[in-house]
Amino acid sequence: MTFPRPVGLLYLLLTALPLCSGLVIDLKTKDDARSVFHITSFGYEEKGVFEFTLKDFVLLVPSSHKKEYNSDHTDGNLVFILQSTKAGGVRLEEGTTDTCFHKTEDNIGDNDMIIKIPYNVITNQKEMLHKKIVIENPGSYHLYFSNCLTGTHVGFDLELVQYNTFGAEKVYLPAGKAILPSLYGFLCVAFFASFVFWIVYLFRNKQYVVSIHLLMALVVLFKACTLFSEAFEYHWLKTTGRPHGWNIAFYIFSFLKGMLLFMVIVLIGTGWSYLKPYLTEQDKQIMLVVIVVQALVNVAMVMLDETAPGAIGWLTWRDLLHLLDMLCCCAIILPIVWSIRALSASAERDGKAARDADRLKQFRNFYGVVVAYIYITRVVVFLLDACLPFEYTWLANVFSEATSLFFYVGTGWIFRPQGRNSFMKIGVDDTGDEMDAEPIPMMNTA
User: Fold this and answer.
1) Is the pLDDT score of 165 beyond 60?
2) Cα(120)–Cα(123) distance, rounded to whole angstroms?
3) Across 430-439, average pLDDT
4) Which one-letter DSSP state was computed for residue 242?
5) Number of separate helices (H) and strands (E) present in the chain
6) At what angle do helices 353-375 and 246-270 cross, to 10 degrees?
7) Number of Cβ within a 10 Å radius of residue 64
8) What is the pLDDT of residue 363?
9) Cα 59 → chain centroid
């Protein structure tokens, strides 16, 4: 099974986008009316380095008030704030209010640093502001821009370089993420070992193997390839601050893995290749919706990942895409519920509860596994990343990948090929509900 058009679209987007160079952030904003917004976050060890260059700064003021914005009026009203916290969460994403963010005492801590933009940089686009700060207090640092000149818009080009130092070595990953290259390498081996084990198990039980088992193997293989490319991407990000092309490989494998994973969950939920050798029109509609929306989510998330978080509209797109992803997750649960309802109705109608008990138990277990997987990877992981101390944020990544591994293993165990499995021919009545009929023999695809 191939996806030539989606992959081609993804490649075109990746080559056409002005990609940010890994952890070397280049933020360009124009005609920005936001009074305050978050730009980036980084976990610093002691002696870490924060370095930024501001250029092409433009202040757009109302023509009727142009004379009022002199050096005295602008002094201390256009600033960058480097805030320190012990956990990974930010205090504010963005806002447009009449209240001055950095002049409110509750918003600024004792260890926070305010970088004022000089008047000569504001009035002369050729002037640049370069700052290099050596961090003395370890923690999670968040960079904001604050504009307290009401009614004005700004534009600028900001280049950021952030890293920790260990002797002569520079580590461009945050303190809580520096261990990720090794962890992703280990997880890649674990998933590849699971793939090999599953292939061996299918070969030993090939007389009971159906198409869905082969697709499940392909999902695990793509997952291992995703982690392999991610391990190398983080390795280069750690040592140079740039992904050296491994981000492209990661996006392609992640795209294929995500698409195939959702397809397999929907197919298992409908009972295709396991309870019945066909898809109903209702099943096909659900699959089409899930595939199209998930494809849009994956492509758009690549665009967001390669854009600086402080860009205008970045948060809106991020929240919208998370919402679409959650809708996809809810949609894939529907076929599982329909299969459970069909099996329950079959047992009650035909009085063959013993025959259907195993199948019903399988689908109920699968429903629980899918719900737990969605909740943990879409909700719990984000809460962990925001609440954990900055040096332990890698635990959120490990927890997410471990959940995925248990989900894959659990799903494989529930629907493993075994002798008692047989197709159960399911028809559709006039109301569109699935109806059980007599079992038909197992199809052998080996």
Assistant:
1) yes
2) 5
3) 42
4) S
5) 11, 12
6) 150
7) 8
8) 86
9) 35
Instruction: Report residue 197 as tokens.
Output: 């084990």
Instruction: Judge whether 58 and 156 are in contact, CB under 8 Å.
Output: yes
Strand partners, 171: 164
CA distance 401 to 385: 14
Model confidence at 342: pLDDT above 70 = yes
| Per-residue confidence (pLDDT) for residue 407, from 0 to 100 | 96
pLDDT at 237: 93
- Rounded Cα distance between 249 and 342, Å, is 42
Looking at the chain, the whole-number percentage of residues with pLDDT higher than 90 is 37
Q: What Å distances lie between residue 439 and 67, 90, 276, CA to CA?
A: 85, 57, 9
Supply 406's token pair: 């248990």
Contacts of 346 (CB under 8 A, 6+ apart): 352, 356, 424, 435, 436
Q: How far apart (Å, rounded) are the C-alpha atoms in residues 165 and 48?
A: 6
**Please, what is the average pLDDT of the chain?**
82
For residues 239-252, average pLDDT? 90
What is this structure's pTM?
A: 0.83
What is d(CA 243, CA 234) in angstroms, rounded to the nearest whole number? 7
